[in-house]
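ENTRY TYPE: paired fold submission
RECORD: A
CONTENT: sequence, then structure tokens
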Amino acid sequence: MNSKINFSWLLKMAWRDSRRNYSRLLLFISSIVLGIAALVAIYSLGYNLQENIDGQAAELLGADLELSDNTPPTPKIAALIDSLGGQQSEERSFASMIYFPKNAGTRLAQVRALEGDFPYYGQLETTPATAAKSFRNQKAALVDQTLMLQYQAQVGDSIKVGEVTFLIAGILTKAPGQTGIAATVAPSVYIPLSYLTQTGLAQKGSRIVYRYYFKFVPKTNIEQLVKKIEPTLEAEDYNFRTVESQKQDTGRTFRDLTRFLSLVGFIALLLGCVGVASAIHIYIREKISSIAILRCLGVKASQAFLIYLIQISGLGLLGSLLGASLGAIIQQFLPAVLQDFLPFELETSLSWVSIGQGILLGVIISNLFALLSLISIRTISPLNVLRESFENVTLSRDPLKWVIYALILLFVFGFTWLQMKKWTDALAFTVGVTFAFLLLTAMATVLMWAVRRFFPSAWGYLARQGLANLYRPNNQTIILVVSIGLGTMFICTLIFIQTILLDRIKLSTDGDQPNMVLFDIQSPQKTAVTALLKQQRLSVLQSVPIVTMRLEQLNGQTSTEALKDTTTRRWRGLFSREYRVTFRDSLISSEKIVKGKWIGEVKDFGGVVPISIEDGYAERNVINIGDTLTFNVQGTILTTVVASYRDIDWGGVQTNFLVLFPKGVLEEAPQFHVLLTHVPNNEVSARFQQTVVQQFPNVSMVDLGLILTVLDEISTKISFVIRFMAGFSILTGLIVLIASVLISKYQRIRESILLRTLGASRRQILVITALEYFFLGTLAASTGILLAVAGSWALARFSFETPFNPQFLPILIVFLVVTSITVIIGIVNSWGILSRSPLEVLRQDG
């Protein structure tokens, strides 16, 4: 044999050998197809999202420039707006109760009072189409389709907003930047701005967002214009958005989504690679005699290694091509899954870049995992022709395996870093995935040891045979527990977390806990609203005064000086936001002091006022105990000092505040009130809301029962997206199972035929097979469920700080489905063994 490497001869040998084993090798490539398909679909989605965002950013914003704040424009901002020129529109938006006189329906909605021709790009999509223009010039409204459906309203009916009754001119189906989820949470009602004052809703203390939209002549350099006016906007704490910033913000949001989905798809691919490693391990074991004969004929170990590396590389490429093709098809359906989360209509196209990335990724990762077994070819000597068993090279004797393990971890880290852009996050993900794989592998190993150590000798023969197959040569225990167990863990963890979140809200609405919040109650209305509650036989569980103010200075520094301080990194909204604070002499159940001293009352007001700040907010903005904060309380300057930090449980139905004042300071300040009550059922809630809206149109209400329903809908949609991606892991696990069963079937033929030769019937072999896969499915599913329970308990205990009371019926269904599928696959794939003649035990299977 020529000592030089002859690649032509190597290719021929790889091809000739694969022709005799193509059915088994195709099982190898099937393991990675779904993982590649998931990644290609997600990559394509990411590229299509970016293209759509770039192309539709103007329609998402609806204008060239938007200025906004939650306070009326100052004289400087008003002068700036006038100086900008171009086409201008104004919008004032706020949350308010709306009322349908036709059926006395009430609902908290987002009221948008609009003046001008906004949107300048895109349009308000309405039914009829003319309503988008006609409502602006009359006492008419556009009502979101979710509200129209919920209250069975029709065009031509009326809707009451505050003190004014509007004709419903049209059904709003789409607005710039609005998503299906946003419409569910806060459905919009558009009215002409000219009628806002008549509604009586624009009162002192009302939470109104002021927006101004601009459209300039073509070729105007918007970024240069913004750069010119930005100092004035910053000085006045006004926000701005341009088409370019909208493009960046929206792109960043959906990049986070696609990165998350990519990691889920990558886990599916890693599961497939476990199947690759297992399949190649068994395949090479079958090839010991062939490789040993080649070695006897003078083929070097390196040449034998290259023959099978070429073979595996070619099949990895084929599997990647198939996966990429499937991913391109799946990508066409992803917009339907995600449409509720998108603020635009997603147009899809084929992304050759994402297809190329998927193919390259598939080839690299399939070869990496296949190398774990391929490098053992180097140790096969010609003497193996005379041996009946293959002596595995242990890790300690083959340092190359450690190198391959290191390369695999490095590759996982590199891929994750490219997705997450932070090495700490990438390291955490890599460690987490490695820990999950190692833990599942360890549990499978322990289970195999426990079965062998505590083998139930008293069981019947068939049960003992099925159980013994869990640790006999060619068993699938480890690969099945890892692949199916990890996929099951994903699904069950998702179910548990969804249950935790919903139960947490339900706990807040149980018993006598508040489940109705009334806000924007003006001081002169408080007595009358309280009387109305008593008239409806409802109790006032909590009454809270709220004072609005703005932060003027921090430790004597203005907003410009404080934000330019390079020694600290503070949020810009620290100064631009409107603070809503309250005052009281004691803490409530959701608060506790974690640092400093709580001072509940100031009897001799005249100096610096001691206040308490939420600890997380103080930490994020580098506000320390003893720092001075100067507030503008609607024209009155008030200097305070941070006396304590509070830890706040934001999960309960309580009125919690970032800044808390003591009694004796703000009693005479302009204020409005919030009342909390408990309504026993939906009928009482509807009747009470109708009465309040009719007598106090400016008072808004939040029905937590409705919020629970909305959250349930949102969580269902979100969980469907995650389940859709986790499904790739489950399916990949099943494919790995099928592949491992089919490949190991060739070794199991001898065992089964030997049993038949010794007198076992087909029924007995079938029962043994069914029991083996029942045990495997049970162990895999139960392992995944136990890990999900442990992980979810930790999340509930340490993250959500809530009791963990899982619903086990869905988990039982998952367990039964996974176990049943495992048994069915095992029986179907082993069915061919039963038709084999006992004489085959004497034949060599090629």
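RECORD: B
CONTENT: sequence, then structure tokens
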Amino acid sequence: MENKKIDSVPSAENPYKLLNLTVVPAKKWAAGIPAVLAAMADLVEEDIPFRGMRALLTMNQKGGFDCSSCAWPDPDDERSVVGEYCENGAKALAEEATSKKVTADFFAANSVYDLAKLTDFEIGRKGRLTEPMYLPLGGTHYEPISWDDAFKKIATHLNGLKSPDEAAFYTSGRTSNETSFLYQLFAKEFGTNNMPDCSNMCHETSGTALSATIGIGKGTVKLSDLYDTDVIVIIGHNPGTNAPRMMSALEKGKANGAKIIAINPLPEAGLMGFRNPQQINGVLGTGVQLADLYLPVKINGDMALLKAISLLLHQAEKAEPGKVFDLDFIETNTVGFSDYISQFENYDVNQLAESAGLSLEHIEAAVEILKYKKRIIFCWGMGLTQQPNGVEMLKEIVNIVLLKGSIGKPGAGLCPVRGHSNVQGNRTMLINEKPTVAQLDRLKDVFGFEPPRNHGFDVVNAIHAMHDGRLKVFFGMGGNFISATPDTSYTAAGMRKLDLSVHVSIKMNRSHLVHGKEALILPTLSRSDKDMVNGEAQFISTENSMGVIQSSKGILNPVSDRLINETQIVCRMAKATLGKRSVVAWDKYHNSYDEVRDIIEKCIPGFENYNQRVREKGGFYLPNAARDGKFLTEKYVDKAPFTISPVPNNQLEDGEYLMATTRTHDQFNTVIYGLEDRYRGIKNERRVIFMNEEDIQKAGFKNGDQVDLYNYDDGIERIAPLFVIVSYSIPRGNTVTYFPETNVLVSVNNVVGESNMPASKFVRIKIKKHIPIISE
């Protein structure tokens, strides 16, 4: 095949075309029999009904393999024999266990440009990657390449850099503990801390806020705490889609008397009701009503709401001293209480309620639920972490928890609901562009080389560095960088300036089509695949969102004998790049995960007897001082500080709206499973914008109109064309769209303070009648 150069470049975005939108009434409950049927339908679609069911019965079981989608923890005690998974977990399994294959012949028949004309959904449906592929300079089609030649190509580019800091090593959440540790070790021995990762786009905000206030960037509760508590507050999170198994825990909490407060701009089905498909009342009955109180807060009105709750609690405490606040806890475990309380002299609760977009009666109802309770759990998701003031809002949640003494005791604490499986484990394994001095010193003591001490690039800074030429090589360990990141056109332009882009993947995605001057695709094993090394079946380990380290062992025969595991990819890249100058025993780690775990034990606290404890059924918990009531922050010893943050002024210009991006129920992160958002009533379409009916009428639009969306941050006009207006229950001035279709509107400079995360839940837009694009 002749490899001809073409003038056009592949699109970084989904094609601008509408399908056949159908809108039906939104659901008031989640799960139930429809969830079971949807899960099974995907197994049939991928032609793996028996292979898939066999895997599902093993997924998330003790001794089985860990689901590759969300990071919600498995029960410590008994697990369901029917299936310890949710609808989206089954869809994730179907995606990776598919019998469909993407071979060298497929790439020979399809140019990069033609593949980019497909939607993300269509790209993902092509099947599993089967062998390494290479796109040469000026090439139009990926070509097969041997593993040895692929690593030589990487080594040549890395060793040709003027500085190791001209390379960046990105990490996805699905990467195992063992691979993550070796990956960061290689980057540091190579000489850089440029380790952007998916945490930089989802819960970096949580880690930043919690580290500063309670001394650890993780949650403080166990799954069992949700079963036996008094109040669960769910804010900025949609469990029915983002962590469906969480609803089983909420159901248990409700059965034991817990009250649930749901805070979110949209009345999500997973916040309202749950029909457990594994129980009779979930199949034949009406299920369980989850939220006792729903607060439809405005986008970024959460800070005003949290301030109003604290103010009303303060007033209640003054009326009944010692009955509302936990004064003993405050005296013993906190600092800054007086300054924190004094701020409320400057606030008016009615103005706070108006800023939140809520009635005062609604907020007072929330305070009545919280007032005399101490066992309170706050759960949150990216509805908070992706706000410009997300760190400050999470600190405000910590303030309320400290006022109530609701941390360091059973049934109480903080629960960030992490997105991707093992995203928390990646950070524990030192995947961090800002490693601590203690971490670096320990690596130096164990391995004998001097690791780099300067901070590296996070995701946002890596994108800027691509543009100005400071980055030449990008290596992606999993994920779909171009679709996950903000400011799509800007990011794509940066990617195309790279000399080499490399992606370790199990399936094709858009990041393979928006590439550097040269590009490599390295296929690897999935979680459900058997991982055979020297004739012996191996297992990896992961960390869930509540700090449990557990084993994961695949059971399915891989789709190709040319796949190698991620750890082997790292080791072979390290050997090819570093050669004899390396002091790390890469061959040893290449051949045994046990050897990797032994060295992790020497480098990271909490992993004593790693190989022994990870083989125990259910795994083991990592130490968590805050869970035990000890707050070891950088500034204080055994004291958690109260913090003071302002309430933002979110005044909108005439014709301006706040937009938040979200995902459909048929989607996990950037992976599109289907074209239905079942709970919100959207069928066969993704290019929709949810708007308040009064806003639609005021702007002169009508339901079903086709519109274009504009953002003008940084003085740049960004356009997301061809969306359909859908009238929805949403606060005035607020809109919601799906990502990645509207990532193009999120300025790379619209970031969360302190954490530098893209603020994808707070985008100022304008909406205009659609203008058809006339192609030449």
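NOTES ON RECORD B: The longest helix spans residues 302-319. The chain has four domains: 31-97+529-562, 100-198+428-524+564-591, 205-416, 656-769.
STATUS: closed
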